[in-house]
Automatic annotation (TrEMBL):
It comes from Leptospira interrogans serovar Manilae. This is Uncharacterized protein. It comes from the Bacteria.
Length: 48
């Protein structure tokens, strides 16, 4: 019984960790995309 409980907890922990990792990757991508887009806009403003 205890072994099954520990295995269940480990499985849940792995899923939570995976979801957190995916969220972090998405956030990092959003930040990089924002910076790239912002620089593009600033360059366009300087040209005009």
């Amino acid at each position: 019984m205890l072994k099954n409980s520990i295995m269940g907890i480990n499985k849940i922990t792995s899923i939570v960790h995976f979801n957190a990792t995916e969220t972090n990757r998405e956030f990092i991508f959003q930040q990089l995309y924002y910076k790239k887009y912002r620089l593009k806009i600033l360059k366009q403003l300087q040209i005009t």
